[in-house]
Specification:
Blueprint: H1 2-30, H2 38-52, H3 62-85, H4 102-113, H5 123-126, H6 129-159, H7 169-194, E1 206-208, E2 214-216, H8 223-231, H9 252-276, H10 280-307, H11 310-313, H12 338-351, H13 366-377, H14 388-408, E3 413-414, E4 417-418, H15 421-447, H16 449-452, H17 459-474, H18 489-518, H19 535-574
Antiparallel strand pairs: 1-2, 3-4
C-alpha cells in the first residue's frame, strides 16, 4: 500500500512540475510570440488563415467572439451527425456497421461538441473507423481548443488595460490545436502504441479458443484517439470499457500516463495565467486551491475503497490487503491497478472534465462514489477541463473577492480591476446554470415513468445513478454510474439538453464578463485591497467552492450516496 501511495504522490508531483514548466510556453503561444515549434508550425498556421479568409490581426468583441465560437461548434456538430447517420455509405467501415439511430446520433454529436463525450453506445459495436476518427476525434481536438480559447479570452481581459476586444476566437483555437494539442498528441500516441495500445485500420481478427469457440476481437485506431481523449479532457473511449480495456490502457505505466495527460493542461493553463498577469503567485493561489481539493478527494476515495465494502465484511469476507492481493473493494476494478490507483484515476477524471474510467464508478462504495459526483457538482474546477477549469475557477475567485469585500465594506478588486455589481451578477449567473439544470432534470426524471425506467438498481443507489448522470453531463464530464440505461429516447434527449446548457449557457455570461473586465482600467492596490496571491486567499477560495457546493447539492446527496452508506453501515451493525 505504501508503494501505491508513493506512486500516486509521484504522479501528482510530476504533473504539477510539468504544468508549471509548460505555462510560459502557453503564454508565448497565445500572445503570438515565437516558440521552438514556430519554424515548423507557423507556415501551416498562415496557410490555414489564408485558406479560410481569417484576418489574424482582427480583434473581436465578446459578442463576435461568442458568435464565432457557436458557428464553429454548430457546424462541427452537424457534420458529425451527418457522418454518424450515413456511416454505412462511407469508407473505413470494415465491419459493415449500419447508420446510428437519429436520437443517439444527435446525443453523441452534442456530447462530443460540448467536450462531454457521454457515450450511450458501445463504440466497438456501433461506430465505423471513419466515425471514430473524423466524427468524434475531430471534436476531441476542437472542443478542447474551444475551452482553451475561452480561458485565454478571459485571462486576456483580466490582464488588459482598457481594451474593447478580447481576441480572435479563430486564431486562439487554431493556435491551441497546432501548437499545443497536436504536438503532444503525436508524441503521446507513439508512447501509448509502444506500450501496447492498439493502432490499426484492419478488420476485426477472429480467434479460435481452446474450447473451439469463435471470438471476434475488436481493434482499431485506438492510440491516436486515446491520447487526445485524455489530453483534451474529453474522455470518450474507443471501447465500451474505456480505459479499463487493456487495448486502451495496458499496464500501470499507461494508467499513470493517462492521469498525467488529464491533469497537465488544466494546471498548465493556470501557470499561463500567472505568467500573463505578471504575477506567478496568482497562479499558485488558484492552482493551490485546485490541488488541495484534488488531493483531499483522492485520499477520501482511496480510503473508502481500500477499507472495502462493509456489507461483505459483515458476512466474513476478508478484504484485508496482503502481499498477494490488493484487498479493499475490488468490485468493478482491474487487478492491474487495484483500489489506490483506481481511486486516483476516479478523482483525476472527475476533478477534470475528462470522464474516462479505468474502473466502474457504479461499483464504488457509497462514499467513494459520492466524491466524484461532488467534484462534478462543484463546477469542474479542481482543476476542471482544459480551459473550462481555469475560467470556472476565476468565476469563483470573483465571488470570493466579492464576499471578502462585503466583510470589510469596500468595493472588491481582482488583479487591479474593480468588481462591481455587473461582474458579480454575471459570475453568479454562470455558476447557477449548472445546479439549476442538474437538480431540475434529476427531479423531472424521478417523477416521470420514462426517467424512472432508466436505473437498474432500486432505492438510493438508483437515485444516485440519475443524479450522477445529470451532474456528469451538465459538468461536461461524460462518466457514468453504469447502472443507468441511457440509450433510450428520453435520456438521449434530456442528457443532450443538459450537455448543451451546461457548456454554452455558462459561456454566454463568461464572455460577457470578459468583455466587461476588458474595458476596465487597472487601479493600483491600496491599503485595504485583499491580496489574492496568498495562501489565505487560496483558503477563502476553497471555502467558497465547498460552501456553494454543499448548500446546493447536500439535500440531493443525502437522498443518494449518504443514505446508501448509512444503510450499509446499519446492515453491518445488525449482523
Amino acid at each position: 500500500m505504501a508503494l501505491d501511495v508513493l506512486g500516486v504522490a509521484v504522479t501528482f508531483l510530476v504533473t504539477f512540475g510539468s504544468a508549471w514548466a509548460i505555462g510560459p510556453y502557453l503564454h508565448r503561444v497565445f500572445t503570438g510570440e515565437r516558440v521552438f515549434l514556430s519554424p515548423l508550425v507557423r507556415p501551416a498556421e498562415r496557410a490555414l488563415y489564408r485558406l479560410s479568409g481569417i484576418e489574424e490581426g482582427q480583434e473581436q468583441s465578446w459578442v463576435r467572439y461568442l458568435v464565432a465560437m457557436l458557428l464553429v461548434q454548430v457546424t462541427g456538430l452537424l457534420l458529425t451527425y451527418l457522418i454518424l447517420r450515413t456511416q454505412n455509405h462511407l469508407p473505413l467501415n470494415p465491419m459493415g456497421f449500419g447508420p446510428v439511430a437519429p436520437d443517439l446520433a444527435m446525443n453523441t454529436a452534442i456530447s462530443f461538441a460540448t467536450n462531454t463525450n457521454w457515450q450511450s453506445y458501445s463504440g466497438e459495436q456501433t461506430m465505423s473507423y471513419l466515425s471514430q476518427m473524423l466524427g468524434l476525434t475531430l471534436h476531441n481536438f476542437l472542443s478542447a481548443a474551444t475551452g482553451i480559447a475561452l480561458a485565454v479570452a478571459l485571462v486576456r481581459a483580466l490582464a488588459s488595460r482598457r481594451l474593447t476586444t478580447i481576441g480572435n476566437f479563430y486564431v486562439d483555437a487554431t493556435r491551441a490545436i497546432l501548437y499545443v494539442l497536436l504536438p503532444i498528441s503525436v508524441v503521446g500516441a507513439l508512447f501509448l502504441a509502444s506500450q501496447g495500445v492498439v493502432q490499426s485500420l484492419a478488420s476485426y481478427p477472429v480467434a479460435h479458443t481452446l474450447e473451439g469457440a469463435r471470438q471476434v476481437i475488436a481493434i482499431g485506431p485506438v492510440a491516436s484517439q486515446e491520447v487526445i481523449k485524455d489530453l483534451g479532457t474529453n474522455g470518450g473511449g474507443f471501447f465500451n470499457a474505456n480505459s479499463a480495456h487493456p487495448f486502451e490502457n495496458p499496464n500501470g505505466l499507461t494508467n499513470q500516463f493517462e492521469i498525467f495527460l488529464e491533469l497537465l493542461l488544466p494546471f498548465g493553463l493556470v501557470a499561463m495565467f500567472g505568467r500573463w498577469v505578471g504575477n506567478p503567485r496568482q497562479a499558485l493561489a488558484i492552482g493551490g486551491a485546485m490541488a488541495v481539493i484534488l488531493i483531499g478527494a483522492t485520499g477520501i476515495v482511496a480510503g473508502a475503497e481500500q477499507a472495502g465494502n462493509p456489507a461483505l465484511s459483515g458476512v466474513g469476507v476478508d478484504q484485508a490487503r496482503t502481499p498477494t492481493q490488493a484487498g479493499g473493494n475490488l468490485e468493478g476494478k482491474s487487478v492491474r491497478f487495484g483500489p489506490i490507483y483506481s481511486a486516483e484515476f476516479v478523482v483525476a477524471t472527475t476533478g477534470t472534465s475528462t470522464g474516462a474510467v479505468d474502473a466502474s464508478h457504479d461499483s464504488l462504495t457509497p462514499i467513494g462514489g459520492m466524491v466524484p459526483m461532488v467534484l462534478m457538482q462543484l463546477g469542474e474546477v479542481t482543476p476542471g477541463g482544459v480551459g473550462s477549469g481555469l475560467y470556472g475557477m476565476l468565476m469563483f475567485a470573483i465571488i470570493a473577492v466579492f464576499v471578502a469585500g462585503l466583510m470589510v465594506g469596500r468595493t472588491p478588486e481582482y488583479l487591479g480591476k474593480k468588481i462591481e455589481s455587473r461582474e458579480v451578477r454575471l459570475a453568479v449567473l454562470a455558476l447557477l446554470v449548472g445546479p439549476a439544470v442538474v437538480l431540475g432534470l434529476t427531479a423531472l426524471s424521478v417523477l416521470l415513468p420514462a426517467g424512472r425506467a432508466g436505473p437498474l438498481n432500486p432505492g438510493p443507489h438508483g437515485f444516485s445513478e440519475i443524479l450522477y448522470a445529470f451532474s456528469s453531463t451538465v459538468g461536461n464530464n461524460g462518466s457514468a454510474f453504469a447502472g443507468l440505461s441511457g440509450n433510450t429516447r428520453y435520456y438521449n434527449l434530456t442528457l443532450a439538453l443538459a450537455m448543451w446548457l451546461g457548456r454554452f449557457f455558462f459561456v454566454i455570461p463568461l464572455l460577457a464578463l470578459a468583455g466587461s473586465l476588458a474595458g476596465k482600467r487597472v487601479v493600483p492596490a491600496g491599503p485595504g485591497t485583499l491580496a489574492t496571491d496568498t495562501p489565505l486567499f487560496s483558503g477563502l477560495l476553497v471555502g467558497v467552492i465547498l460552501i456553494v457546493g454543499a448548500l446546493t447539492f447536500l439535500p440531493a446527496l443525502t437522498l443518494g450516496p449518504l443514505l446508501e452508506h448509512l444503510q450499509l453501515a446499519a446492515g453491518q451493525l445488525a449482523r
